[in-house]
Specification:
Layout: H1 2-22, H2 26-29, E1 39-45, E2 48-55, E3 65-69, E4 72-79, E5 97-104, E6 115-119, E7 122-128, E8 139-141, E9 143-145
Parallel strand pairs: 6-9
Antiparallel strand pairs: 1-2, 2-7, 3-4, 3-8, 4-5, 6-7
Amino acid sequence: MTGRRRDLDDLQAEIQELFADLWQVPRFAGLRRGFRPQCDCFRTDDPPVLHVVVELPGVDSETVAVAVSGQVLVIAGARQRPTIPGARYQSMEIEYGVFERRVELGEDVDAAGATARYERGMLKVVLPIAQRNTEQEPTPIEVTRG
């Protein structure tokens, strides 16, 4: 049954990648409304930790909130369009607005031991892998600013 589970996990990862790639195609990019930051999630074994890195250029660090609920990391905030008196836009390609990213972690994590650091437009969250997580309520993670 382990092989079958691995096949299902591989299929799920391929589907998620396909949908993520779909947003990069120019004709579909126009369907999005608002800002959706890009993120990477990877695991290290020594120590057993999940790392999530999120691109947040132009986002005021005071608007960023990070929380863990079960096996989901939630990152929320806002990127505001600058107000420039008398400006008339010729082109508007940069996305602004409120955002919320939900990252499926796939493993239980120790929210109490998690850290988050926001520096130069990049949010880096480090989540120690837990032996067993019984917490179901969202646990906020304090974001330090660099």
